[in-house]
Design goal:
By secondary structure, the chain is of the alpha/beta class. Helix content is about 30%, strand content about 20%. Mean pLDDT is about 95; it is low at about 5-15. It binds oxa(dethia)-CoA.
């Protein structure tokens, strides 16, 4: 068994093995992948489950359908497929991975962390593995965590995955939440980028724990362990005060986007694509207004997948790379917001395998 860490991992095969540990270097994404389960749940299907209508869901959220994992499929199963696709796209073997980060609020188990379960399925036996809980901001938080390790020379090649089985934590009797979420996974391989390329250019992050009650799962953790009463009251399911969350989501994603641009010394006109967390089309439109960015430069797939939490940005990014919208050298701004609250924004030059 080999170990990775400061001073041990930077000579792994591939780019820039001459950079000694402790030296800050540019890091980029060299491949992305995603996966959604095959079962489609449409708004019309939901009309038969709760008192809702297709018209309400489309007009208030922009969502038309979402994917729902099979009973036997867990978050790690979705993550592994997305991860394999990202590795293939990057031309990286599982054995080359130093680090796996899985961001999720729907882990397979309270422990071990889902990244270890992904490692097992991938056969990435050199990697150290960590779970990361930042809700819908998880993909960007995971990217920044991996970027810091790689920039510092503590790892060379990382796999970052945002994956969720949100359907497992929804209250299917609560129409105000169960129509909003879906299952899926998005993944990216991060490595040092060749000289002259920028990769991840800037990131900003913020959190506000004083508002944690607005979006949470109230029971099942150490504060309120599972009892027959908590289960009967569906307190192991997601609860959200949607209208308030909406307001903070717009404000924080727009402000973080502007701050990340400022930090990068760029303006919105330099950005080819904006990838927002896919929570609601109206939130995305409001962010566009605040950033002064037309809808045509936003990557949006909320109509197909709903809100997939930590998976959402990676899923949208992968679709846009694979269908050719995002091309080498494009500057991409990603903005996220989620429970906690947590939020963040990242400006990145898409490098791919360059
Ligand atoms: O990913 C993490 C971040 N999450 C978000 O950013 C989500 C943020 N919030 C939202 O996207 C929106 O607030 C929702 C989509 C959740 C709700 O939209 P809204 O326009 O804020 O609606 P509302 O909560 O103010 O509810 C309006 C009405 C209510 O009825 P009354 O009280 O006005 O009679 C709700 O009971 O709509 C009713 N309603 C529904 N009606 C039909 C709530 N859910 C439904 C439903 N179908 N599914």
């Amino acid at each position: 068994m080999r170990y990775c860490g400061v001073g041990t991992a930077v000579t792994a095969a591939g780019a820039d093995s001459s950079v000694p540990s402790g030296i800050v270097r540019a890091v980029g994404m060299t491949g992305v992948g995603s996966h959604v389960p095959s079962r489609v749940l449409t708004n019309h299907d939901l009309e038969r489950i709760v008192a809702t209508t297709n018209e309400w869901i489309v007009s208030r959220t922009g969502m038309r359908e979402r994917r729902i994992a099979a009973e036997h499929e867990a978050t790690s199963d979705l993550a592994v497929v997305a991860g394999r696709r990202a590795l293939e796209a990057a031309g990286v073997k599982p054995a080359d991975l130093d680090m796996i980060v899985v961001a999720t609020i729907t882990p397979d188990y309270p422990f071990p962390n889902t990244a270890c379960l992904v490692q097992r399925q991938l056969g990435a036996d050199r990697a150290f593995c960590m779970g990361l809980e930042a809700a819908c901001s998880g993909f960007l938080y995971g990217m920044e965590t991996a970027r810091c390790y790689i920039a510092a020379g503590a790892a060379q090649t990382a796999l970052v995955i945002g994956a969720e089985k949100m359907s497992a934590v929804l209250d299917w009797t609560d129409r105000s939440t169960c129509v909003l979420f879906g299952d899926g996974a998005g993944a990216a391989v991060l490595r040092p980028v060749p000289a002259g390329r920028r990769g991840i250019i800037s990131s900003v992050f913020g959190s506000d724990g004083s508002l944690s009650d607005l979006l949470m799962i109230p029971a099942g953790g150490s504060r309120r362990p599972a009892t027959a009463e908590t289960v009967a009251a569906r307190e192991h399911c997601l609860r959200m005060r949607g209208r308030e969350v909406f307001r903070y989501a717009v404000t924080h994603m727009a402000e973080a986007g502007l701050a990340a641009l400022h930090k990068a010394g760029l303006s919105i006109s330099d950005i080819r694509w904006v990838i927002p967390h896919q929570a609601n089309l109206r939130i995305i439109a409001a962010i566009g207004e605040r950033l002064h960015c037309p809808a045509s430069r936003f990557i949006v797939n909320v109509e197909k997948y709903g809100n997939t939490s930590a998976a959402s940005i990676g899923l949208a990014l992968d679709e846009a790379v694979r269908d050719g919208r995002i091309r080498e050298g494009d500057l991409v701004l990603m903005v996220a917001f989620g429970a906690g609250f947590t939020w963040g924004a990242t400006v990145m030059e898409w490098t791919g395998r360059a």
